[in-house]
């Protein structure tokens, strides 16, 4: 048979295989998670009322986050300066106040020496009535800690600023600290929400011809949603987990193993190693390691392994991080099965997620080591600092340091974040700055780009930038907008972009979320706790907050299976979403709310997952056909 006939025969066989696999691998109908009621669209009057309520809830939740964080700092100060000389206590207080400008005053009381030291001692001055109230709360704080009780005052006004007192005493009762806290973050959040929820005209008339649509709203209910855990017995056919009896193999032994089973450098987790073979199935790998290396144990790779005992056939473990605000405030991560998903992937520093936004606060303690050197498309040559708060909040959802006993947990533990400032200090940007930011991110290693921004103009220039990044195998994720409208927003509505709507803590459509046939998936978007400038934390809402959940998931998928194309990653996320609303795709939820565990389980190892194999073969056929046509 001639080479041409062989090629044609191969094409026919492959085409038949695609048809067969498409039929055989079509997923069986599963019970769908239904809402108690179909998504409804509030009228303008209702929408305004709901948005005002959400704004108040956002500010209230931020107040609680702020107080929880301050309490931790005071307890830490008492513990770390216990028995320290006065100069060390003074130096500690100075560092604390420099890094946390909202701590207006610190009063240190030593009950053993009856000495009081005050750092930044001048109290704010207001009216006689305001000053009287301030003194009343300060005296209440002193009385409480004298009686070995902690203290927290209500908020009070001095001039045009809001404050509160907090006091803590150490366990031995020897020392205490009183702090006066400036709550300007509440004004920032309120102003942020007024604009982003469109409760006031924004941007101001005359500044932009097209309105920017990245926004926020809130609901403070902690409810876990999602479906039951999948069975943990599923494993990757060409991978194995091995713990060696003598600790860790030498570099020479690892080279021998790599040559024998044809694998790249294994991943090391605690005392165990995960080997991924290019040629062996799990059963063959087990035989190989058992006979040649006599390991302490081998097992399938059905989860990421730590130094814990094996836990087979019990469902995926829930990894609960120790971050201060996680259990109380971060309802959004359990809702999309993040904790189970961490058994499969916590990310990789090799997979970069770009945040094209208002910039990111690089010095935030919960983002240390997570950020790469970024780019400022607003002021060329400047660093991409955040002068709004939006980008810092988005970045924290994706990759705030996890399991560090501070603040919030990010969805990705290890993916690096590339901050790109494309929006100015009003929170708005031009088509040019956004397009420039997208192109720069694509040229500088981003494998995922998050765009928590948009407008309603179908800009060809912006679309060209989107295509540029997409053609370079970047997964692009965008917020749909917060105007409660069916009008398509861009870049979310472009074909190359994964458009994200917002849900609340009960899995229902967020009242502000834009909708339409272009919506691909939904993600949590109400009362999302995350990092905020000045080393603080805030609870914000909006599709701007929903989008980074999906971008972070894309980063985890690409870390787990680098062989997948951007289209395959997007297909996996939509195919494994938890269906909400009417069965199948709908204009409110797209294909449903993303599910991190289910998606990562489907992503598998370094090979093309079975459910994507028909599309993969189809692309190979198309590429082969084009090659044949070009050869004539």
From TrEMBL:
The active site is at residues 357, 390, 544. SUPFAM superfamilies: Subtilisin-like. Belongs to the peptidase S8 family. Keywords: Hydrolase, Protease, Secreted, Serine protease. It holds the Pfam family Peptidase_S8. Signal peptide: none annotated. The keyword Secreted applies. CDD domains: Peptidases_S8_Thermitase_like. InterPro entries: Peptidase_S8/S53_dom, Peptidase_S8/S53_dom_sf, Peptidase_S8_Asp-AS, Peptidase_S8_His-AS, Peptidase_S8_Ser-AS, Peptidase_S8_subtilisin-like, Peptidase_S8_subtilisin-rel, Thermitase-like_dom. It is found in: Secreted. Residues 349-592 form the Peptidase S8/S53 domain. Its main location: secreted. PANTHER family: CEREVISIN-RELATED (PTHR43806:SF11), PEPTIDASE S8 (PTHR43806). This is Peptidase S8. Gene3D superfamilies: Peptidase S8/S53 domain.
């Amino acid at each position: 048979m001639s080479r041409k006939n062989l090629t044609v025969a191969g094409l026919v066989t492959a085409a038949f295989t695609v048809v067969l696999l498409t039929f055989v691998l079509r997923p069986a109908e599963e019970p769908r998670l239904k809402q108690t009621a179909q998504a409804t669209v509030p009228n303008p009057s209702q929408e305004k009322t709901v948005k005002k309520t959400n704004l108040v809830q956002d500010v209230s939740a931020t107040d609680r986050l702020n107080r929880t964080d301050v309490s931790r700092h005071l307890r830490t100060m008492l513990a770390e300066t216990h028995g320290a000389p006065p100069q060390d206590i003074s130096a500690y207080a100075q560092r604390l106040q420099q890094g946390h400008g909202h701590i207006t005053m610190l009063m240190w009381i030593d009950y053993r020496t009856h000495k009081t030291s005050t750092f930044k001692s001048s109290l704010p001055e207001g009216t006689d009535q305001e000053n009287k109230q301030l003194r009343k709360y300060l005296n209440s704080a002193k009385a409480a800690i004298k009686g070995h009780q902690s203290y927290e005052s209500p908020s009070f006004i001095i001039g045009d600023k809001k404050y509160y007192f907090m006091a803590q005493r150490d366990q031995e009762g020897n020392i205490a600290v009183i702090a006066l806290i400036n709550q300007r973050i509440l004004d920032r959040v309120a102003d942020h929400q007024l604009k982003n929820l469109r409760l006031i005209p924004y941007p101001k008339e005359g500044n932009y011809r097209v309105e920017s649509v990245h926004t926020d709203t809130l609901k403070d209910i902690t409810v876990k949603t999602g479906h039951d855990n999948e069975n943990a017995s599923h494993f990757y056919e060409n991978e194995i987990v091995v713990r060696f009896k003598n600790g860790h193999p030498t570099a020479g032994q690892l080279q021998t193993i790599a040559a024998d089973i044809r694998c790249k450098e294994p991943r090391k987790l605690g005392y165990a190693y995960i080997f991924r073979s290019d040629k062996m199935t799990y059963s063959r790998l087990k035989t190989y390691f058992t006979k040649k290396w006599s390991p302490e144990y081998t097992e399938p790779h059905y989860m990421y392994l730590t130094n814990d005992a094996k836990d087979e056939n019990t469902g995926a473990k829930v990894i609960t991080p120790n971050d201060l605000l996680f259990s109380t405030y971060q309802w959004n991560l359990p809702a999309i099965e993040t904790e189970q998903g961490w058994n499969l992937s916590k990310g990789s520093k090799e997979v970069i997620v770009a945040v094209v936004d208002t910039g990111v606060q690089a010095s935030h303690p919960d983002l240390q080591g997570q950020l790469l050197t970024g780019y400022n498309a607003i002021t060329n040559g400047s660093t991409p600092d955040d002068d709004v708060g939006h980008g810092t909040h988005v970045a924290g959802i994706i990759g705030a340091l996890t399991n560090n006993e501070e603040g919030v947990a990010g969805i990705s533990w290890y993916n690096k974040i590339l901050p790109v400032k494309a929006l100015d200090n009003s929170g708005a940007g031009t088509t040019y700055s956004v397009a420039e930011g997208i192109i720069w991110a694509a040229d500088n290693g981003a494998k995922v780009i998050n765009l928590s921004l948009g407008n309603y103009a179908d800009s060809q220039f912006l679309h060209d930038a989107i295509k540029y990044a997409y053609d370079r195998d970047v997964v692009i994720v965008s917020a749909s907008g917060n105007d409660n409208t069916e009008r398509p927003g861009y870049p979310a509505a472009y074909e190359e972009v994964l458009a994200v709507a917002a849900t609340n803590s009960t899995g229902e459509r967020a009242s502000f979320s834009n909708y339409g046939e272009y919506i691909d998936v939904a993600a949590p978007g109400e009362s999302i706790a995350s990092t905020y400038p000045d080393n603080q934390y805030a609870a914000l809402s909006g599709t701007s907050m929903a989008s980074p959940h999906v971008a972070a998931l894309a980063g985890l998928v690409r870390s787990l299976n680098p062989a997948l194309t951007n289209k395959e990653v997007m297909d996996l996320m939509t195919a494994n979403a938890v269906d909400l609303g009417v069965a199948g795709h709908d204009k409110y939820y797209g294909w449903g709310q993303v599910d991190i565990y289910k998606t990562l389980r489907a992503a598998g190892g370094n090979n093309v997952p079975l459910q994507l194999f028909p599309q993969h073969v189809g692309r190979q056929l198309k590429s082969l056909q084009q090659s044949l046509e070009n050869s004539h």
